[in-house]
Amino acid sequence: MATAATDLLTDIKKDSYPLQSTTDLDPLMDRIGDAKYVLLGEASHGTHEYYTWRTDITKRLIKEKGFSFVAVEGDWPDCFEINRWVKGYPEARGSITDVLNQFDRWPTWMWANWEVAALAEWMREHNQNLARNRKVGFYGLDVYSLWESMELIVDYLEKEDPKAAVYARKAIDCFEPYGEEEAYASALSMMKQDCKDAVVKLLHEVRQKAPFYDHDPEARLNAEMNALVAANGEKYYRTMASFGGNSWNVRDLHMVETLNSLMNFHGPEAKVIVWEHNTHVGDARATSMADRGMLNVGQLVREQHKPEEVVVVGFGSYEGSVIAGSAWGARMQEMKVPQAVENSVEEILHAASAENKMLVFDNSPALKEFFNRWMGHRAIGVVYDPGWERGNYVPTKLSARYDAFLYFDQSRALHPLHLKPNGHLAPETFPFGI
């Protein structure tokens, strides 16, 4: 047994790639090849290295392989403001910090941070001299912004399509008594009827008329995606409030539907980089999630496309620090991430060598075979309790869940824009999901 363990550590040292500079990503670029979907994960929403290395990968994919846009685990309306800014639209706000400081829901640190600001500034510079239809975009895939999306639809349709605006106002009237998503979800348990019909009619009307809206093609896209958020957002909150419903699946199905709409919008040559938590991009069929009937973005994208068209990259670390909240609605704070538990993915990689490294499973049959067995893999959400460390591990077959894995031995907390110098923090967590 000791010999087998020694052989494994030797294989990891021999077959993994060091991670020190962007040139060390060459094996990953080769593995990506001509793929159209590159899904980049993260083991937390608050780790500096996950954001900066995803940025390095993203830059290379855009420059070297012509990727069309970045799609993230964020709300559509807020992320569309980033999209406007990186493309240099006249109505965009003055600076990227002005844009990011408008993120006032969800865990704001997740996108309103200096690491994202650096990527956005690079994208704006990259886009500066490109034709309008060649500029690289930035979009949100998530379903949470139901109210904000409804309001944006009404404002837009009242100018562009008064008939469709009638459906939008009916939907708003339906939701109006509840004021916010959580209140609507709670009220559903006592309601005989809901707002489903209103938002479905709205989505149908917007999709039917979208090709005839104003001359700005992204305005049409924005209207349709906000309508989709309204329809699927209503379904999400209704499912969340019901017994036996699987709101996780509703959310991830929405994100894939949004992704597919974006790919259709950008045309047959489009390529996308997805930024989401490992629990969304890492194939659910290779985790204990499948036993609970859960699916996710990574699984669905793999199922819908040829194997060579999709590459999934996971991230993890052994110990360090992270930005998270101690409870729902708690203030964000920097927390210590303890050493990974024994026999977990992260502990095994640390035992092999205490350095950053990358595994590309197709390049090492030995590692692909070893990591195609069940072992714990750490997942930190927006709410985190370092004292309950063993509860943060998802049983995983790593080489089936991902095509490649980036490991960081010592990780650091990212740098939120809203982290005040005097230590006073605003509530930063949102009470649903990872």
Automatic annotation (TrEMBL):
<dbReference type="InterPro" id="IPR052036">
    <property type="entry name" value="Hydrolase/PRTase-associated"/>
</dbReference>
<dbReference type="InterPro" id="IPR007815">
    <property type="entry name" value="Emycin_Estase"/>
</dbReference>
<protein>
    <submittedName>
        <fullName>Erythromycin esterase homolog</fullName>
    </submittedName>
</protein>
<dbReference type="GO" id="GO:0046677">
    <property type="term" value="P:response to antibiotic"/>
</dbReference>
<dbReference type="InterPro" id="IPR014622">
    <property type="entry name" value="UCP036794_erythomycin"/>
</dbReference>
<dbReference type="Pfam" id="PF05139">
    <property type="entry name" value="Erythro_esteras"/>
</dbReference>
